[in-house]
Amino acid sequence: MERLPPMDLMRSEKMTLVQLIIPAESAHRAVTYLGQLGLLQFRDERLKIAMLMHFTVEMNLVMANGASLLNAEKSPFQRTFVNQVKRCAEMSRKLRFFKDQISKAGVVSSGPTMQPDIYLEDLEIQLAEHEHGLTETNSNSEKLQQSYKELLEFKIVMQKACAILFSNHGHAVSEERELENMNSKGDYVETPFIFQQETSTEPANQSSLRFISGIICKSKVLSFERILFRATRGNMLFNHEPAGDKLTDPISNEMIEKEVFVVFFSGERSRTKILKICEAFGAHTYPVPEDISKQRQIINEVSSRLADIEATLDAGNRHRNKALASVGDHLEKWMDMVRREKAVYDTLNMLNFDLTKKCLVGEGWCPISAQAQIHEALQRATLDSNSQVGIIFHSLDALESPPTYFRTNNFTSPYQEIVDAYGVARYQEANPAVYTCITFPFLFAVMFGDWGHGICLLLGSLVLIACEKKLSAQRLGSFMEMLFGGRYVLLLMSLFSIYCGLIYNEFFCVPFHIFGASAYKCRDNTCSDAHTAGLIKYRDPYPFGVDPSWRGSRSELAFLNSLKMKMSILLGVVHMNLGIILSYFNACFFNNSIDIRYQFVPQMIFLNSLFGYLSLLIVVKWCTGSQADLYHVMIYMFLSPFENLGENQLFWGQGVLQVFLLLFALIAVPWMLFPKPFLLKKLHDERFQGQAYGKLNTTEMDPEVEPDSARQHHEEFNFSEVFVHQMIHAIDLAHSELSTVFYEKVLLLAWGYDNLIIRLIGLLVFSFATASILLMMESLSAFLHALRLHWVEFQNKFYHGDGYKFKPFSFASLTDDE
């Protein structure tokens, strides 16, 4: 860390295009060391043709010099190390398979164990052996579980079917005795019942009446019985009983309720129909003998086989869990190793392999300040690989714009992400994140200002910061990850909210006499009309913030509305002036005199001739205590610029100044709109005619800048932008009014009852409304409006945001998906 240059957020790091010529024997180690360093972004030369199509002249020069495009003619499947990438991808698939199996089995790893370093080839063999063993174990386990489920169903069918047959047999015997009694009385029954056919001892009846037993899903029983009745034309008898607890279906592996059925029928055609219907309904049929002794024998055999399968499954699961535990002890290390190796070979595929010289040639971007570190890492790779030839590392002249790289830390990175969400900064242009670190939380606090709510946000941010190490090592949800990433933004937002809340003198919308007594008193001793007839000022103003006596007074809304509206205008004008001033520094940095003359100067004149003048009037009115109507002054500045101001005049010479400022504003509009697009068009034509072929690093000669610049100068200065800052005032008023409603209509109303339960309910409702609406919804609203003020009103004045990020090859940035 001591060797790193000081962090500079104002301008991105100076970058250089470098070329590496690496001997084949040290290529893998060199790329590995560069991945550990994480300061070099390799460039895939497949994309170089598309990039050079925009620079026709430069491409012709390159082709004339005989420069070859690295890997441009090769598809991804023709690269040198594609087989190694495929092997790493296959190993990654196996490791993900092991991870899923460990998660499903619920195996808890004992933690990473010390293991000597293993080569990739040995790891590949080990993973193949582990996968083969685990796959075979799973296959055997699935077959055994399938057999177990079928045998369990068979056992249940045997038990329930035997009970059904036994009950039907007893019923048939009683029917037979009844028939004998009826025959003794002289009655005669011509056709016997079906149960009599079943229990008859005659061979012909036994051969004609049969039954089929099985098990079916409970939800299908009624439809199943109805279809059977229709198919056999009623020549069947259907009995069913619940199977008991839910069973696992052998086919679908789902836990469902089932019922055991026995269908009595006669004839081979009926048997065929019933079996087809059973198959259509997904019913499983099992043979059940009629002999009771055979039934008991089969039940005993099935029970014995179930016990054996259970013992085998238990032993198999123990062996499987033991194997998974041994893999789980090294899983994270192996996954990291494979992930790194795959990244290394992916990077090597971006290099061009020279068969004649047996070396790899690559190009990439790196910070100029990191060249020494990269050179040191390459030298170490040469020594460790025992190569006889060193690695050549030198800089090249670049045609395209370099990537943008800012060194950030935990505090500055969320602000940089807010800016990058609008667009990545162009190389070396002014970075808005430097000012966003302060202006963003401050503008949020201006809208959110309440030091009670600010304390709540402060406590939340302090908890996130205190648990930083613990939370950074965990997988968080999307919302919690956003909060944790912006913990320092939340910290500053809460501190500024407390500060603005003290200025507004609002603690959950309740004012307090924190800095002394009020400057106002009641008109009489009883103060009965203090909230209707107004107050009398009797001493110096309240030392800090808004006097608490304004709260609830007759002129509260008019006073606070005027204060916050004017304060919002002042902040908005300062914010936009800062953006325009930064455009001047950008133009100076890129030696762009056109932007200074035809963008910066007219914009400053236009903004300050109108809204800068309005800000001056606000300050003068505050200092002098004048009763002038600023709305009247600004409106009639356009409608009747030569009219006498009368009582609205704040200082001598104001009328003459207004006329000059109005003239300056009118002149600034065409000054902004017309000259620059024509000048850029002229420079563009001269350049491609060969008359003014200038440097590529100046903005005036950059073809990528010209369309954007022309677009900017066809846009008239937006009059409504300053009024957008009234959103600050509007959001703050909404926050204050909501706080007042919850305080007066919920908390005070509940406190008016002499009942503890009602007071507790009121307190709970007030707390819930404060947490859910004011702290969450209102803070989100203020956050989004602060975001808009920065993106549209501030960054739009100077920030192009058309660059691309510096993404170095780094093992630290690899994710689990890579």
TrEMBL record:
The keyword Ion transport applies. It is a multi-pass membrane protein. The chain crosses the membrane at residues 442-467, 488-505, 569-589, 610-639, 651-674, 756-777. It holds the Pfam family V_ATPase_I. Its main location: membrane. It is found in: Membrane. It comes from the Eukaryota. Keywords: Hydrogen ion transport, Ion transport, Membrane, Transmembrane, Transmembrane helix, Transport. The keyword Magnesium does not apply. Essential component of the vacuolar proton pump (V-ATPase), a multimeric enzyme that catalyzes the translocation of protons across the membranes. Required for assembly and activity of the V-ATPase. This is V-type proton ATPase subunit a. It comes from Stylosanthes scabra. The gene is VHAA1_2.
